[in-house]
Amino acid sequence: MNERISPPAAAIQGSHCTPEQYEALYRQSVEQPDAFWAEQAKRLDWFKAPTEIANWSFDPVDIRWYEDGVLNLCHNCVDRHLPERGDQVALLWEGDEPGVTRSLTYRQLHAEVVRMANVLKTQGVKKGDRVTLYLPMILEAAVAMLACARIGAVHSVVFGGFSPEALRGRIEDCRSRIVVTADGGMRGGKVVPLKANVDAALDGGPEVDAVLVIRHCRNDVAMMEGRDRWYDEVAADASDDCPCEPMNAEDPLFILYTSGSTGKPKGVLHTTGGYAVWTALTFHYVFDYRPGEMFWCTADVGWVTGHSYVVYGPLANGATSLMFEGVPNYPDCSRFWDMVERHKVNIFYTAPTAIRALAREGEAPVKKHDRSSIRILGTVGEPINPQAWLWYWRVVGDERCPIVDTWWQTETGGIMITTLPGAHDMKPGSAGKPFFGIVPELLDAEGKARGGAAEGNLCMATSWPGQMRTVYGDHERFVQTYFSAYRGHYFSGDGCRRDDDGYYWITGRVDDVINVSGHRMGTAEVESALVSHKLVAESAVVGYPHDIKGQGIYCYVTLIAGEEPSDALETELRQHVRKEIGPIATPDLIHFTPALPKTRSGKIMRRILRKIAENEYGSLGDTSTLADPGLVDSLIEGRRNR
Ligand code: WT7
């Protein structure tokens, strides 16, 4: 499909970027990057303005932006807005129960951030220290992130849906001495026992100096003497003065763990100046944000989307950002549209998986709510199929609202490929055009760039300010993962097609990473969770097409000698993976098999397993190198029975 849809004139009247402006700015951004990025840095307040702008190399790998600049991102997101918008709502929060709301004006946000910053200081946190945040979607999550940024501490937010095991690994990896959590979080009417999970993560594991507990659900929790403190009690005596720490542009801002194709999750490290410019700039242009508008990104702050487009991007622009604790189908599947109506949301940004799930419920839950406040719609996290795109366009947006399909990654800090509402036609299913400063390249297996309309591995030829700088504690892994497949290029891990009009169509991951409901999952992680079960000998995990989730988790499992598959064991393995990683990693299909297809040298032939899981038996390719070619037929037989 190559349908073109023009942005409706009313929605983009007075937009920040016309087609001509896009062309001119894009050209300048790639032809004179230093001039372009020096100018864009002026979006921020600097204690010392940078004179060095871009200084990077992909071979050897060394990436620096604005390296002699000094700034503080909390100052830019909070303090600097006080004179003009102290009384404007910065963050509006709605809890799991409809209509339960709280808000913070910029002035109130300032007071809360200062208080939290001083509490962290009294717990001994200093510039450069890592602080783990394991929180529900409550205002304090944003406050804690900003408080860390204020004092120069490096936050590591761990999504509240991750298991104690996963949390422990992340606390250990960055050696944080402080954990900020809550008694619990609410999702769909149920309490998520966050504090109990922290207790389990720390039990016999990493030693920390303090666990600060925010009172939220008022569920029962155990408090460990000497280690655990109620945040409100410590905060009561906190001083209301805390200057912003001057940070070098290249000082670390945060670590965020993400899954790769091998081994344990990587700590993606972002630094201060470049990330700040990138999120501020992309927010302004991609969402065409106008003063006073209500912006709602439905992502959790445990993901990069929440970092960049719930907290930092909107607040750096002095916007009003809506935070939602709950889920799209509680108390029923009209919740999003109910909130859009009540809070007069102008810009709405969500994931294709949510759109597909809601589309299945029909039009009525959408149509019964007034959505006339919406001006721009956005999606992120996975490819959106044209059918879901058209539903979003037609039913949610009434064919009135431009849709931005934004491609980016944890590693990129912010949006990289997208249309801009006022500048581009849309094509359902295509992310669109490169953002300013972005030079995508489609490389073939030999590393040759393919020009014009072509398909290949999506790489970046040049750096951009929001790029991650290293894998925390393992720079070699950073180099290996992103810069070794194609020397001198950043390799995204995605496949992509470019059409005659220069639009990019993301085709999905080409590595062993799968995308389940917009959550990134390393197949190797699920495999190691499975084989940690005492009855499992071996496993291979692949993705397969799933109507709602995009991809589902398909697990081939072989048992140790003498064990027989059973429904009970299947359930147990499912539970086991949930416990090891978290509910988002729950296997969709478990396929017991006596053996996995291997080459004579013992390498698992994942290509074949992927095809079988996808129900594509016609194109299995060469199976002659298999040690046991007969196995393929029995695997197909097993797949058909599912
Ligand atoms: C992977 C990155 C970026 C924040 C959320 C996910 C996939 C992301 C799109 C899109 C097609 C997309 C890619 C990418 N992806 N956005 N608009 N169209 N695919 O961040 O967890 O780091 O995952 O998500 O495969 O590599 P992440």
Provide the fold topology.
Elements: H1 9-12, H2 19-31, H3 33-40, E1 54-58, E2 61-65, E3 70-71, H4 73-77, H5 82-85, E4 89-94, E5 101-105, H6 106-122, E6 130-134, H7 139-151, E7 154-157, H8 164-174, E8 178-182, E9 185-187, E10 190-192, H9 194-202, E11 210-214, E12 228-230, H10 231-236, E13 247-248, E14 252-258, E15 266-271, H11 272-286, E16 294-297, H12 304-316, E17 320-324, H13 335-343, E18 347-350, H14 352-359, H15 364-367, E19 376-380, H16 386-396, E20 403-406, E21 417-418, E22 433-434, E23 440-443, E24 454-460, E25 470-471, H17 475-483, E26 490-498, E27 504-509, E28 513-516, E29 519-522, H18 523-531, E30 536-546, E31 550-559, H19 567-580, E32 589-592, H20 606-613, H21 631-640
Parallel strand pairs: 4-17, 6-7, 6-8, 7-14, 8-11, 11-12, 16-17, 16-18, 18-19, 19-20, 31-32
Antiparallel strand pairs: 1-2, 3-13, 4-5, 9-10, 14-15, 15-25, 21-22, 23-24, 24-26, 26-27, 28-29, 30-31
Helix pairs in contact: 2-3, 6-7, 8-9, 11-12, 14-16
This protein binds 5'-O-[(S)-butoxy(hydroxy)phosphoryl]adenosine.
GO biological process, one term: acetyl-CoA biosynthetic process from acetate
Binding site for CoA: 187-190, 305, 329, 517, 578
Domain AMP-binding enzyme C-terminal: 525-603
